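dumping the sequnces here before i forget
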Amino acid sequence: MSLILLLTQQMCVYLVIVYLVSKTPLFKLFTESSKRAPHKVFIYVVFSLFCILATYFGEQTSGAIANTRAMGAVLGGLLGGPVTGFFVGLTGGLHRYTMGGFTDIACAISTTFEGLSAGLYSHYLKKTGKAESLYHPARVFMVTFAAELLQMSLILLIAKPFEQAWALVYVIAPPMLLINSLGAAMFMSIVRDQKTMLDKLSSSFSTNALKIAERSVGILSKGFNEQSSQKVAQIIIEETRVGAVAITDRHKLLAFIGIGADHHLPNTPISSTMTLDAIAQNKVMFADGVDNTYACSLSSQCNLGSSLVIPLRSNDEVVGTIKLYEPKNKLFLNINRTLGEGIARLLSNQILYGRFEQQKNLLMQAEIKLLQAQVNPHFLFNALNTISAIINRDPAMAKKLIQQLSQFLRINLTRTTGLVTLADELEHIDAYLAIEHARFIDKLKVNINIPAQYHHHTMPAFTLQPLIENAVKHGTSRMLEAGVITVEAKTQGKDLLLSVTDNAGLYRPANNTEGLGMNLVHKRIQNLYGEPYGITVKSEADTYTCVCVRIPVEEITS
Amino acid sequence: MISCLIIDDEPFARQEVADLLDKHDDISILGQCANAIEALQQINLLKPDLIFVDIQMPRINGMELIAMLNPEQTPRAVFITAFDEYATKAFDNNAFDYLLKPIDETRFNRTLDKVRSNMTPQPMANILPSQLPHLPCYSGSKLKVVATADVEFIVSDVGGIHVYSAKGVSHTQLTLKALEEKTMLFRCHKQYLLSLNAISEIDITDTGAEVTTHLGAKVPVSRRYLKDLKQLLGFV
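..and the predicted 3d for all of it:
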C-alpha cells in the first residue's frame, strides 16, 4: 500500500511539471503529430529523461526498483512512433541496466519492448485513420496497462531465480500497473485538453479573420478614402472588439472608431510619433501597454493604453496605417496582434487591387478620349471640300453646313466619357448625318425609327454615333448603289436594344480599323453593365450588316 | 483645246472641280463620272486628254481605275484626295500631280500650268496595284463588281469581253491584254483567259485541248499555249 502512495506521489510530481510545461509554447510540440526529425528528437529527449528520472526516483523494493518508467516509454512510443519509441525504451532500459539488481536485464528488455510496442500501436492507429483516438485517456490507460503486464511477464520469464522474481512481481505489479497506466492516461488528458484549446482558439481566429475579410471585401478597392476607411474600421472593431480602431493615410487620420473618438478626429494630421515612425520605416510598431505604454499625444484624458500600428502597403510603398488600440485597463491580446497584421495585409491587397482597377479605367477612358478626339480626317476634309464647293452658289447652305460641322466637332471634343441620354446621342448623330447627306445627297438615306419614349434612356456617350459612322464609312460609302441605313430601338424585357442596319453587307470580322471603335464601345458597355450586355453583329455578304447594342433600361435620370 | 473628265463619287466635289475649270477657256469638260466603272466606260468612249480622279471611291478606287486602263490609252491624270498619307507620299516621290481637298485655287492653277506644258501621261506602273482584286462589269445595264478570284474564264468575241463566274456572265470594258497583265488568269487561246483554279478536266484534241471547268463550261486551249498550261499544272 505504501508503494502505491509513493508511486502516486512520484506521478503527481510529473503531472505538476507537465501541467506547468503545458502553459508554455514548448508544449505545443506534444500536440502536433509531425514527421519532421527535430520533432522526433524532441520527443525522444523528453521521454528518455522521463524514463531516467523515473528510475532514479523509483523505490528500492526487494532488490529491484518500483518505478513509473513505463509511462515515459509508452508515451514516447505513442507520441513519437515506433522508431522514437524504441529508442526511448532502449535509453530508459540501458539506464536501468546500469543500476544493476537481479531484474536489470529483464527491465532493460521490457522497457525497450514497451516503447516499441506503444510506437507500433500508434503507427497502426494512424494507418487506419484513427489517429485521434491516440489521445483518448482510456485507450492510453489500456495500452500502458498492457505494456506493464508485458513487463511483469518478462521479469518472471527472464529474472532468476524465479522465486525471487515471483515475490517481487507479487509486490510491485499492482501499484506499477495502476500508477503507470493512470499517469500516462492523465498526461495524455492534459495534452488533449491543450490541443482542443489550441484548435478552438485558431478556429475562432480564422472565423474572425474570414468574417472581416468577407465583410470588407471590395470596400477599399473602390478607393482609399474617408468613407471607405470608416466602413472598414467599423467592421474591424465589431469583429475584434478591441478598444478602438483607426485608419490613416500617409498624412492624416481617415477614420477613428471606439474609445477616444471624441478627440481623435478624422481629417486631422497624424500626431502620434509611433504612426509617423511606422510610415517612415515601413515597420509594425507595438506599444503593449506594459513595458511600453501608448500615450495619446492629443489628450491627457485619453484612456487608451496600448496600441498596434501596422503600415498599409501598395507595392512596396506605404500608403497609410491601420491602428488597433486597447484601453489602459485591458491587455492587448496576442491574437489581436496577429489578426491586425493579417487585416493590414488584406487591406493592402485591396488597395493595390483598387489602384490597379482605377488605372485600368483611366487607361480605357484615355483610349476613348483619344478615339473621340480623332475625327475621321477623311470625313473632315471632304466636309470642308463640300462647303468650299457650295459656298459661292449657295452661301446660306454653306453657312448652315459650317454650323453643323462645328456642332459635330464641339460634341466630339467636349463630351465627357460619362453617361448621356439617347436624345443627346441622336443630336450628335444628326449633326454628323447633316454633313454626310450634303456629301452623298441621294446616295445616302438614313431612317431613324426611334420612338420618343426611348429618348430619355441613358448610355455611355459615343455608343450609337460611332456605329452609324462605321455604317457609312465601311458600308454605304463603298456601294455603287444608293445606301440605306436604318436605326431602330426597342425594349426586350429589361433591356434596351438599339440596332444600326445598312444595306451594304460589307462587314468582315477581321476588319481591324472598324473593329477598334466597335470593340471599345463593346468593352465600355460590358465594363459598365456586365457580361450579358454589349454589341453583336449579324451580316450577310452584299445584303446587310446589322450591329445591335444591348444595354439595360435605366431609371430616368432627370 | 484640252478635253477632260472629272471622276469623284461626291457630286459637290465634282462641281467644285468643274467650277474651277470654268475659268480656263482652253479646257473643255467632256463629262463627270460618279464611280470608276462609269469612268472606265467614258474614258474608253471619249478618250479624254486629262482626267481629274478622286482616289477614294466605292468598290474600285482611283488607283485601281488607272491600273485597269491600257497604258497606251491612259490619259494624263491629276489625282485628288481628302486625306491619304500613303498616296500623297507616293505622288510626291514620283512628282505626280495631285490636289488636296478642299482644293486651293492657286495650287489648282499651278497644276493646270504644269499639265499644259507637258501633256504626256506619266509612267505610273510603280505605284499602281499590280493585281486587280475586282473587275468592273455590266450585266445588262446594271453595274457589277466581280471579284477576280470568282472568275472561271474570260472570252473575247465580236460582242465584247465576257466574264464567266459562278454568278453568271457579265461584260467588261477591260481589254483581254490588260486582264492578262493585271490578273492571275492564264492565256490559253487567242480569245480566252482561264483561271487555273477553275479547271476540272482537260481533254487532248487535234487542235490542242479542251478544258472542262468546275461549272461545266468548255474552254478551248490552242496548241501553242498547251505546253505552258501543262507545265503550270505540273505535267511535264
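Residues 20 and 109 of chain B are 9 Å apart (CA to CA).
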